[in-house]
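Example 3.2
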Amino acid sequence: MKEKPKDSDSLYWEQTMRTVPTQTKFLPKFMVSVIIFFSLSYVFYTFKLISSPQSCNSHHPPQLKAQSQASILNQTKETKIRTQLDHIVFNIGASSKLWNKRKEYIKLWYKKNQTRAIVWLDKPIKQSKRSGYRDLPPMRISEDTSRFNYTHGLGRRSAIRISRIVSETVRLNLTNVRWIIMGDDDTVFVPDNLARVLNKYDHGDMYYIGSSSESHLQNLVFSYNMAFGGGGFAISYPLAKAIEKMQDRCLQRYPDLYGSDDRMHACMAELGVPLTKELGFHQFDVHGDVFGLLAAHPIAPLLSLHHLDLVEPILPNMNRVQALQHLYLPMKLDSAAILQQSICYDQSKSWTVSVSWGYAVQILRGILSPREMEMPPRTFLNWRPKADFTGYPFNTRPQARNLCQKPFVYYLSSCVYDQSTNRTVSEYLLHRIEYPDCHWKMANPSEVERVEVHKRPDPYMWDKAPRRNCCRILSSEKEGTMVIDVGVCRDGEVAEVTKRKKKKRAVHHI
């Protein structure tokens, strides 16, 4: 029989079914080829991108790219160079009326050809060879400030002149300047320590570094966020340039402020730059004997002292300048350690011993913990006459809780460097005053007439985390002499106070 002819729909369906297997076999091979092609391309171009030395900046001209790399290398090299004295410019706001007296303070710390400094005066003064002008910084006369308003009823308009010293210094276009230091003509600086402290900070950023007053009320009246100018403060050069651009406009907005430092603070606030505090700047808003502040100095490098005309000489039987000259003797040997306190105990005699290196040693009957000894004893008076011990923005303690615990004080007599041992040897002699009678059954510190302190200089001590040095009382064959070793604390060494069962005495573990 003949087959029946198929209709068109059936014919199309059969043809379609015959072609499907062929397409199904071809499709996987095609997709695999595509995937392999793109994978190989990805690997090839990735390898080329990684191995190319100009992968990130291939679109830059070679010369421009070389200049960029050189610029980065120069910046890196500059940041690695430690801040030195020649990077710092000291600016002293001085008065022509007080110059003959105040210049003696500047001679203490200024060293020609070592220290960069400028004295800014209100008007010219006569200089003579007898005045020692060759040992003083160069002098400049400040610009006229009569166009600025000053409305404070108790202050002096010289505050405007002094505050503009920063701007006038920037306009001198001095080279190789990282920091500008501001201070008064009765401010005494420790330049080497300032260089050490400022080295911690990036001079390419905006920094305003200083400290507050020793008077709580002074800080309330002015601001806890203000650097008090007499104690000195540091301004990084980029910040100084920013101030120069806006300071005159800023000063016009604050005619009612009292001094130069609160005007500076007002401009800092407008720039949005906060105060970075360093405890080594000392405004010394106190009266009387500052022994307590110096003998219990914070664990921070000494940077400045101020108001030296208003406090007693820091050493007995000397005038103010002589006493400061004496303090600068150990500074020449180990400025990083000056006034740094160490606390230890004489176990056999139950004595507490405190060493303020380069200044004084104290021996006290009985045991006072390090927590007590690091608080300044109130040998000084508050800046505000009616304020009591609550008027200080830091902890203080009474001079003695008991008459028997009045400290026996030994002041610096001499200081030398021993090359054979690489140590300084400083001598402290008992201050001969009348000490109260004591009936405690323990040795009398007056039997010690002389204290000898041995210490290895450590110019990089402030590059490390702050820590008080340790002291150890050594045996001595010299009658009436106590020998002490001061230095970096050993592993596990603690100024520890313990109690024995029978006798209450201190043990200093090493």
